[in-house]
Amino acid sequence: MPQGLEARFAALIGKRVTIRLHDPQGGFRDIVGFLESPVTLRNRHGELIEFAHEQIALWREVVEKK
Q1: Is 30 a member of any domain?
Q2: Which whole-number Å values give the CA distances from 21 to 29, 37, 40, 41, 49, in the listed order?
């Protein structure tokens, strides 16, 4: 796991993020939810989703509009 990315994700634990992953069959898939660890997030259905940092194409923190 890339050290810089691990530290950035560790700082975002508990925050809402969206992550675009490279799909093994080609293309991409998006996951959205609250980061529970540097490699897992919980989506709106309560499912825990694991991912590898090597799969990440793009990511960002979802900031609530006020």
Answers
A1: yes
A2: 5, 17, 13, 13, 12
The structure's pTM equals: 0.86
Strand order in the sheet with 56-61: 48-50, 40-42, 28-37, 16-22, 56-61
The first and second tokens of residue 38, run together, are 């540097």
Over range 33-58, report the average pLDDT: 95
Residue 47 pLDDT: 97
Residue numbers of the domain that contains 19: 3-61
Structural domains counted in the chain: 1
Is 66 a domain residue?
A: no
Looking at the domain assignment, is residue 42 inside a domain?
A: yes
Percent of the residues in the chain that have a pLDDT greater than 70, as a whole number: 95
* Residue 57 and residue 9 in contact, taking contact as beta carbons nearer than 8 Å: no
